[in-house]
Amino acid sequence: MCGIVAYLGHREAAPILLEGLRRLEYRGYDSAGISVMSDEGVLETIKRPGKLAELEAAIADSMPRGRVGIAHTRWATHGAPTQANAHPHTSAHGDITLIHNGIIENAGTLKKKLQEEGYCFSSETDTEVVVHLIDHLWGEGAPMEDAVAAALAQVQGAYGIAVVSTRDPYKIVVARNGSPLLLGIGAQGELMAGSDVAAVVGVTRDVVYLDDGDVGVLDRTAYRTFHLERGSVRRTVHQVTWDLEAIEKGGFEHFMLKEIHEQPQSLRDVMRGRLIADEGIARLGGITLSDADLDEVERITIMACGTSWHAGLLGEYLLEELARIPVDVQYASEFRYKNPVIEPNTLVLAISQSGETADTLAALREAKRRGATTMGIVNVVGSSIARETDFGMYLHAGPEIGVASTKAFTSQIAALVLFALYLGRRRAMSVLEGRTLVEALERLPGQVETILEQSDEIYALAEKFADARNFLYLGRGYQFPVALEGALKLKEVSYIHAEGYPAAEMKHGPIALIDDDMPVVVLAPRDPVYGKVVSNIEEVKARQGRVIAVVSDDAPELDGKVDHLIRVPQTVPALLPVLTTIPLQLLAYQAALLRGCDVDQPRNLAKSVTVE
Ligand code: G6P
Question: Which of 609, 610, 611, 612 for mutating ligand 1's site (highest number of atoms within 8 Å of CB)?
């Protein structure tokens, strides 16, 4: 989704801004632009529809020179991805430029008022309203932050903005409300702002996360922050622990492939220091709820979107099975507009890789308003969901750049297993069961490695099916959410239509689709429903469906019965989803590659969806 970078310092701004934009590319966008202010106080803006390469080509001819500037990648919401709609947007006299992430909900009303005042609009965006409003409200001789604050007082909606102006040169004003924004505090007076850490990490690892309602003022001497309602505030400086390597491809052709291959490590990282083998328990330092309160929890409501929702669904199976707590899983986007019942003793668990998904954040806030205790399972440290939940667990998976989530998903599953173990051992689970699970967790990263070693065989399979128009994914029990995730991965990156279904439900509809043209991926590792799934495979085969079965090492019943077998090592049923997911990621990746798709930035998708 849209990305913001801003720079002010002693170096040329344009190359630093472009580097920041490149690091934000993964978020998904369809146009890009840059505004740089020269030392003589002239603002130059260049923007282009399409990929960053278009903007870079435009800039290559005549790079705007200056040491303060803002840059943006836009993911279209209001208005098509054209040059006119690309950010930055400029005031009528060309003396203010602004970039914006989010949606201004009262843009229509404000636009009408501004038009009555004589303002002309050159784009279809909601953003342009804000730049004219700042211009309109800017009092003679007032500093830029006053004009920005006055404008924001009239704005409703979500925003992260950055503004520069020749009226108050060598300054950048940024503000956030509902859309992530942070400051980067560099050495030698270099200051940055960005919509995520990747934007600033090329210059500094010291970051200040802004809260909703915060305004940041960056100038030649220092930075300061104030809250629109509460006045001056001091926000802590945090150190980003991961380094640049983590957001580079490291020899892999794509981020998605790199992240698939990072899973043995990301799984080790999510478990690091959290397992006590002897006692068969998990130690989770982030769970700061008292033991007494934890024991009072009678229901868990999980909310999430996309891949994280699939992890949530697995969470339901895991927590009910291992901890015997009733769980319901909600799409965050649905929860926020229902009239949800939050009973006392309900724990609301938000799952999010980015920690910034607008719907998940809004659902979380709604749950808090209704008095729920809230927990987060989040990857991005310092993100909004991480900060707004009462307590939680970080995934420590490192930055995930590929738009289609891979390593975050398997880490989410592992985190949920740890949480289920943590609760389970306080409730129904015996020490022996706990130990078995801990031992299985410890074996898991090595088992993932053995599946990755079979990549070539899975790629060969992808060749056979890359031309298919539809795919069906079937699974039962723990494997049902994996079927959903496998189908999602395939459609996200290869644009092949795919559906995930509970294997037995197939009879109630999708079976009508099965013919000799329909590849059916069946998740059939050896678990308590294996026998049932074998029967479902028979049903598909009886209708000439082409079956790719993901099975355990030892599955003689299926030899010769299905068209293709992918084998995964054996483990306890609760952990099989991690193993069965890996081949589906590789299958989707290779199918996308063979179809010439942009694997890391699939069309229309965004990594972090910060609008409704
Ligand atoms: C977007 C991404 C998905 C992701 C979903 C939820 O749609 O493309 O990969 O699963 O958002 O994101 P979150 O950061 O909340 O996990």
Answer: 609
- The pLDDT value recorded for residue 248 is 78
The rounded distance, in Å, linking the Cα atoms of 134 and 175 is: 13
pTM above 0.85, yes or no: no
Counting Cα atoms < 13 Å in the Cβ hemisphere of 270 gives 31
User: 307 CB less than 6 Å from ligand 1?
Assistant: yes
Structural element, H or E, at residue 549: strand 546-552
Q: What are the residue ranges of helices labelled H in 86-188?
A: 107-116, 127-137, 144-152
Could you read off the pLDDT of 158-216 as tens digits, one per residue? 899 999 999 999 999 999 998 889 999 999 999 999 998 999 999 999 999 999 999 99
Q: 568, 583 in Cβ contact below 8 A? A: yes
Looking at the predicted structure, is the pLDDT value of residue 381 above 90? no
Peptide bond between residue 445 and the one before it cis (omega within 30 degrees of 0) = no
Pairing of strands 281-282, 275-276: antiparallel
175 three-state secondary structure: strand
CB 42 within 8 A of CB 51: no
Confidence at residue 601, expressed as pLDDT on a 0 to 100 scale: 86
pLDDT of 88 over the 90 cut: yes
Report how far residue 216's alpha carbon sits from residue 193's, in angstroms, rounded to the nearest whole number.
9
Residue 237 CA to ligand 1 center (angstroms) comes to: 27
The arithmetic mean of pLDDT across residues 32-36, rounded, is: 97
Check: CB of residue 179 under 8 Å from CB of residue 160. yes
Question: Which of 403, 607, 610 maximizes ligand 1 atoms within 8 Å of its Cβ, making it the mutation to test the pocket?
Answer: 607
| Ligand 1 pocket member 401 (CB < 6 A) | no
